[in-house]
UniProtKB/TrEMBL annotation:
GO terms for cellular component: cytosol. Its EC number is 1.6.1.1. It comes from the Bacteria. This is Soluble pyridine nucleotide transhydrogenase. The gene is sthA. NAD(+) binds at residues 183-190, 280. It comes from Gracilimonas sediminicola. Binds 1 FAD per subunit.
């Protein structure tokens, strides 16, 4: 062999893991380089996706249990549960996932080495271990999957005692009575609703003009009602945020202004126990030697790739957060797999441009395709069908009354162009609609096929009938609607 390996993967997150596994199935010799001395999986397993969802799942279970019994509904979770117990569940999951990743690597004869990888050339990677030892490995192909790291805040510091980031918040020793979340994105909502359901009083300081503006308008309206019910305050247009201790009152003070508040930009103060900062992320590319060997990076340091996740250097690929949008674990798995197929000339279908997105808040939010507003902006004649969780039998059984499933479809052909869900199990429910959309189906699928009952999937049938009724009222003959349009 001309090289030590067929492919070297830098990073063992979802993109790196899937590329390594797929390459091993092609009988290729694979080396995975992981900077973490103790675990595999990067942010995916150790500090991001899985641990935050594990804590969120615990909060969701507590919330469901308490809502089933009136005498518990008004009590706070921290009256009955210790943070250490909740985090023990998270730690068990992390240990299990790390063991599974290591087992998969061993079982598929994938070599691993711990240390920091740096590219010396387009085919060579130098690995430096924590004791300073250096060794160089070569490969025909290289996948860069080093992930990202949080941006440091401006105007205040993270001390990981009173002011946390998404990593250190998972080391809390207790459930805070009061929490301020500084953030504008998906994670801000996820952590806010998680801690709210654990009994914390939560405020969100959103530095942007609006909160999660990409959501469908009706989903956003439903979400606002739920946030009000959970007593989560959202202050948009927040700026000039300062955080200081108040020793006299034994609290942390968060001072901020609101842009365009018609009050002359007066100072506002929230007293809190802890602050969670969830700013943006930057790619881990600054010490990899990529520019030096000709790999093109954008202004923010993300690796520029084509549709095959191939960089400007033909044998070097990138996947996951390091290449930017969509920067989700779900899509990263596909990116690593596709990169492996392209490297070794194996035919594989491209990932469709419409990919599902999920927000793991309580309740969940999921969507795929166009919002109603986007569809109309594109000049499409669309109708919508709605199903509210309060009208679904499973919603009654599970005492989950908050939620909406919305179908957006072309009025003439009934073809699905968008699905938007807020409610219990939305992240799972979205995949039924995704399958119908990807096969070019229309809303009659949900009417003509039997769906298990009672389930949350019943919402698709109700929404489809609701949409059909709207078309009927618009003047289209009902019999013609139910007929095949082939």
């Amino acid at each position: 062999m001309k090289y030590d390996y067929d492919v070297i993967v830098i990073g063992s997150g979802p993109a790196g893991f899937s590329c390594a596994m797929q390459s091993s199935k092609f009988d290729k010799k694979v080396l995975v380089i992981e900077a973490n001395e103790d675990s595999f999986g990067g942010t995916w397993i150790n500090s991001g996706t899985i641990p935050s969802k594990a804590l969120r799942e615990t909060a969701r279970i507590i919330q469901r249990f308490q809502n089933q019994f009136k005498d518990l509904a008004k009590e706070k979770a921290y009256q009955h549960h210790q943070m250490a117990d909740l985090l023990m569940y998270k730690n068990q999951i992390l240990e299990s996932k790390n063991t599974k990743v290591k087992t998969d690597f061993d079982k598929n004869e994938i070599d691993t080495v711990r240390g920091h990888g740096k590219l010396n050339s387009e085919h060579e990677v130098e690995v430096e271990t924590t004791d300073g030892t250096k060794k160089t490995y070569s490969a025909e192909y290289i996948l860069v999957a080093t992930g990202s790291k949080p941006v440091k805040p401006k105007g205040f510091d993270l001390d990981h005692d009173k002011v946390f980031d998404y990593t250190s918040i998972l080391t809390l020793s207790h459930i805070p009575r009061r929490l301020v979340v500084v953030g504008s994105g998906v994670r801000a909502l996820e952590y806010a609703t998680t801690f709210s359901n654990l009994g914390s009083r939560v405020s969100i300081l959103n530095e942007k003009d609006s909160f999660l503006p990409f959501l469908d308008n009706e989903i956003s309206e439903q979400l606002q009602q739920i946030l009000e019910t959970q007593k989560i305050e959202v202050f948009s247009n927040a700026e000039s945020i300062e955080i200081n201790p108040n020793a006299l009152r034994n609290t942390t003070e968060v001072k901020y202004n609101l842009r365009n508040d018609n009050e002359g930009g007066r100072d506002r103060v929230i007293e809190t126990e802890h602050v969670l900062y969830l700013g943006g992320k930057v790619p881990n590319t600054d010490s990899l030697g990529l520019r030096e060997i000709g790999v093109k990076l954008d202004e923010e340091g993300y690796v520029v790739v084509n549709n095959d996740n191939q960089s400007s250097v033909p044998n070097i690929y990138a996947g996951g957060d390091v290449k930017g949008f969509p920067a989700m674990a779900s899509s990263a798995f596909s990116e690593g797999r596709i990169a492996s197929c392209r490297m070794f000339g194996i035919e594989a279908l491209d990932v469709p441009p419409e990919i599902p997105q999920a927000i793991y808040s309580i309740p969940e939010i999921a969507s795929i395709g166009l919002t109603e507003k986007e569809a109309k902006a594109e000049g499409l004649d669309v109708t919508v069908g709605r199903a509210y969780y309060k009208n679904i039998t499973q919603g009654d059984i599970s005492n989950q009354q908050d939620g909406l499933l919305k179908l957006v479809f072309e009025t003439e052909t009934l073809k699905l162009v968008g699905i938007h869900i807020l409610g219990e199990r939305a992240s799972d429910l979205i995949h039924l609609g995704q399958a119908v959309m990807s096969l070019g189906g229309d809303i009659r699928y949900f009417i003509n096929h039997v769906l298990n009952y009672p389930t949350y999937s019943e919402a698709y049938r109700i929404a489809a009938f609701n949409g059909i009724n709207r078309v009927y009222k618009a003047g289209v003959k009902y019999k013609k609607i139910l007929k095949s349009k082939d």
